[in-house]
Amino acid sequence: MNEAGPSNANAAPFTIIGDRINPGFKSTTALLDVGDMAGVQALAKRQVDAGAAALDFTIGPRAKDDPQFLVEVIRAVQAAVSAPICFDYPEPAVQAVCLEAYDADRAGGAKPIINSMAETRWSMAELLPIRPCRVMLMASERLDNGIGKPNKTAAEIAGTAKRAALRLAREHGLALDDVIIDVSISALIADTAGMNREALAAIGLIGSDPELKGIHICGGLSNIAQQLPPKAADGSDLKLQLECAFLTLARPLGMDTVLATPWRGFQMLPEDNYVLGVFKRVLQASGTDVLRQVRKLYRK
């Protein structure tokens, strides 16, 4: 997978999976509601032109009820760009339609990505014989004596990631280069349990594990600034600065892939950056003190 770089040349490059073909964005919903394929194609092309190496793809619940429309949108996207598609559906039946519609030749031979598999959704492994694939694994939940449980510590996140990744390699022949671990970035305003702190620690554990050499680590950057004001206390773009703050800390630990809007202008932040400094303090807080620290991001 090609790598896109941050705006400062000295920082290590990272891969961007464009996140805009998703009805969670009102502008995308408007295109899908009227079947504006030219608009969807323009959106796909804009993401690739801005540096996306792959495109996350979901048309929402309509995919289950209207598989013909789902295939039409996939083919429209592939007619416009040569980037591989990351199919973002937890339902195996919908994923099967996506994988069967995908044309690897139009993507230069690149494999599609199944997003999101998990230990608690292991039946999705039955999709792998359809065609050669890459897999995005959710490490936020695990099976414990047959019961799905959320992972709350770095050790649980990293342990689940390793167990599932090695199982894919052992039982299904996937190379670790074809496995992408999603550590699940949380909305900062609601992170009273310190899940972003644990996610960063988990990235370090996964990235330094010699048995997982070659694996990729990913997170959805846009999650972190949900429900926060647009401007930081220093006048900067708060949402962008927070996304960059997480990336600044995560990239050296081993995170090499982001699910994000590619034209956001990501960069590694300097140590004296105001938002980065407050973000570090938020990560060390717990309980209601998290909210007190978060307020310092936009109100001095």
Topology of this structure?
Blueprint: E1 15-21, H1 26-33, H2 37-49, E2 54-57, H3 62-65, H4 67-80, E3 85-88, H5 92-101, E4 113-118, E5 134-138, E6 141-144, E7 147-150, H6 154-172, E8 179-182, H7 195-207, E9 216-220, H8 238-250, E10 257-260, H9 274-284, H10 289-298
Walkthrough of the structure:
The protein is an alpha/beta fold and 300 residues long. It has a single domain (15-298), classed as Alpha-Beta Barrel (TIM Barrel). Helix content is 38%, strand content 16%. The chain contains 10 helices and 10 strands. The strands form 2 sheets. Strands 1-2-3-4-5-8-9-10 form an 8-stranded parallel barrel, surrounded by 4 helices. Strand 8, helix 7 and strand 9 (216-220) form a beta-alpha-beta unit. Helix 2 (37-49) crosses helix 4, helix 6 (154-172) packs across helix 7 and helix 9 packs antiparallel against helix 10 (289-298).
Weakly predicted, low-confidence segments:
6-10
Instruction: Report the CATH topology name.
Output: TIM Barrel
Biggest pleated-sheet summary: 8 strands, parallel, barrel
Number of helices: 10
Query: What's the CATH class, please?
Result: Alpha Beta
Task: Give the CATH superfamily.
Answer: Dihydropteroate synthase-like
Assign the CATH architecture: Alpha-Beta Barrel
Q: Biggest sheet: strands side by side, in what order?
A: 1-2-3-4-5-8-9-10
